[in-house]
Specification:
This protein has about 140 residues and is mostly helical. It has five helices and two strands, in the order E-H-E-H-H-H-H. Helix 2 packs across helix 4 and helix 4 packs antiparallel against helix 5. The protein has a two-stranded antiparallel sheet with strand order 1-2. The longest helix is centred in the last third of the chain and has 16 residues.
Amino acid sequence: MIRAPNATRPWQHVLEPLSGYLTLAEHLFEPGESFAEGWNFGPREQDAKPVAWLLGELAKCFPALNWRSEPSDLHEAHFLSLDSSKARQRLDWQPRWRLRIAIEKTAAWHQAWRNGEDMAEFSAGQIRDYRQVPHGDGLGAI
């Protein structure tokens, strides 16, 4: 059940903000206090997509995916985004994977989990794949 299929969200793979926080930790360890403040580690602006778009892409990976929308009285923002410009400028951090790659990697992880694979090994492989792409390279087309 989806409340707001036309709402736009800043989608990204979980490794993106994790890499940002690890980069921040490095900066906090060396120079220290000048980096002790709030940070956003989000996707590129063009990787913000409507919920229905994301569900359509996921359905390509999981053909049995079914969803429907139902109006709700809950407040739902139409557009959410994260401004990561400070992280780009001060930490030299940028996302590595474009949204389509993030979706493919996420779907592969869930499929491996469903198949009973060794998830520590599978996850380590995805981390190696992620680390091979330079920050800001934007591997994969949207």
